[in-house]
Specification:
InterPro entries: CHP02574_addiction_mod. This is Addiction module antitoxin RelB. The chain is built from four helices and no strands. Helices cover about 60% and strands about 0% of the residues. By secondary structure, it is mainly alpha-helical. It has helices spanning about 25-30, 35-50, 55-75, 85-95.
């Protein structure tokens, strides 16, 4: 990680910190407006930040993700696709 850049893991996403006023959607919108090279660098740093999570924190985050996805499925916000459909589409994309 670049010593001149703040450690994003230490900036709160809620509370009174810099990122508190910026919700996840607006943060995502801002990130998507970055030039491709900057988006790639940001994505790499975000992914690397996940490597430093404890096992308990990683498990907690995966459970939260699974719970969120289950709620989206139950609410009809997303639809399910069969493994066969996903495989067929993936093979078609790779041709």
């Amino acid at each position: 990680m670049d010593a001149n850049r703040p450690d994003l893991r230490k900036l709160p996403l809620s509370g009174t910190g810099r990122l508190a006023a910026m919700n996840l959607k607006s943060l995502e919108r801002e990130a998507l407006n970055l030039p491709p090279e900057d988006r790639a660098k940001l994505a790499q740093e975000l992914l690397e930040s996940l490597d430093s999570l404890s096992t308990a924190e990683s498990e907690r985050l995966w459970l939260e993700q699974a719970d969120r996805r289950a709620r989206e499925i139950d609410a009809g916000v997303v639809s399910l696709a069969s493994g066969e459909d996903v495989s067929r589409k993936a093979r078609a994309l790779l041709k």
